[in-house]
Design goal:
Dihydrodipicolinate Reductase, domain 2; Rossmann fold; alpha/beta; 346 residues; six-stranded parallel sheet; single chain; eight-stranded mixed sheet; 2 domains
Length: 346
């Protein structure tokens, strides 16, 4: 297969920021069409990207000849669309969270296995280069035996355009809303990626920013099978300054001989090891993967989206497994649901 024909379902933020530009910049893909019931969003993608084949009903998009789809809809539609796409023999890149329930996730995974198609879940933070470097350094024993990991995700989220998002799924308690499901999904996946499977999860949630029916701040603790203790914090904040809030997103790993702090949105990490000759002289050092400029932090996030899309396309072309599977999505969702269950008992 030399070219992958792709359809995109959902034309909102993540489609416009990630999927559409990444597919357009890939020499191996052609966007066959984009579907969304909101005609204003379809007009936006026509004007911004020049994609003229648009559909107000995704079932009409399915009539077009395609090899794969990206699902960029609110989470409550993920299962329905994934199962229909799998039954049509299409490979699927589904945005996080994979679904709203583990039962839905199981049905999605089973439909893809039955039809021999790939199911990848959109955890693009795995593809941020400083996180990849941090994971390699940890696995190489550069900080000794890890015993503590902390992840924090702080952003304006839907508060950044509240007048537009106030009636969206972000604030729907039964439709996939809340910062723990939205942003926390990324952190649960990242902490699993770094440390393996947790044995237990406990959490607390709260609402402080606006009069909404879902949480806008959450914290969770995890006990990992490898002995690591984990802490996760996520929040939607009304502090819009990137320079102020950029450092509030991070992955921190502490080991018996050092530590790594990796900027959540990229592009750099800080490192200290008591065995390092350089650290003995300079103390904590900052490392930025080649090709990135610390003064332009958004490039790392943008590159992660492209690398995620490229990994999906290459898996389809090669027949190899996708790097972030439906099972990965299910396990992250399971941790989110356990966190909500714990929070309700507090």
């Amino acid at each position: 297969m030399h070219e992958v024909r792709v359809g995109i379902i959902g034309a909102g933020f993540i489609a416009q920021q990630s999927h559409i530009p990444s597919y357009l910049n890939s020499p191996s893909t052609t966007i066959i069409g984009i579907a969304d019931p909101d005609t204003r969003k379809l007009d936006e993608v026509k004007n911004l990207f020049g994609v003229q084949e648009t559909f107000s009903d995704y079932k009409d998009l399915f009539k077009e000849p395609m090899d794969a789809i990206s699902i960029c809809t609110p989470p409550k539609y993920h299962a329905e669309i994934t199962i229909e796409a799998a039954n049509r023999g299409l490979h699927i890149l589904c945005e996080k969270p994979i679904a709203l329930t583990l039962e839905e996730a199981d049905k999605m995974i089973e439909a893809c296995k039955k039809n021999n198609v790939q199911l990848m879940v959109g955890f693009n933070y795995r593809f941020i280069k400083n996180h990849e470097k941090a994971k390699r350094m940890m696995e190489e024993g550069r900080i000794g035996k890890p015993f503590f990991i902390q992840g924090q995700f702080a952003s304006t989220g839907p508060y950044g355009d509240f007048e537009r998002t106030r009636n969206s799924f972000y604030f729907d308690p039964i439709g996939g809303g809340g910062v723990l499901l939205d942003s926390g999904s990324h952190l649960f996946d990242l902490l699993r990626w770094f440390c393996g499977e947790p044995k237990s999860v406990s959490a607390k949630i709260g609402t402080y920013g606006k009069d909404i029916k879902v949480e806008d701040v959450a914290t969770a603790t995890l006990d990992f099978e490898n002995g690591c203790i984990g802490v996760l914090t996520c929040m939607w904040t009304q502090i819009e300054s990137w320079s102020v809030m950029g450092s509030e997103g991070f992955i921190k790993i502490v080991g018996s001989e050092g530590k790594i702090i990796s900027q959540l949105f990229g592009p750099s990490l800080k490192y200290f090891s008591k065995r390092s000759k350089i650290c003995k002289i300079r103390g904590e050092i900052e490392l930025t993967p080649r090709g990135f400029d610390p003064s332009i932090p958004t490039r790392a996030l943008q590159k992660s989206w492209f690398d995620e899309i490229n990994a999906f396309v290459e898996a389809i072309k090669s027949g190899k497994n996708v790097p972030v599977t439906g099972e990965d999505g299910k396990k992250a969702l399971g941790l989110v649901l356990k966190a909500y269950e714990s929070a309700r008992k507090v």
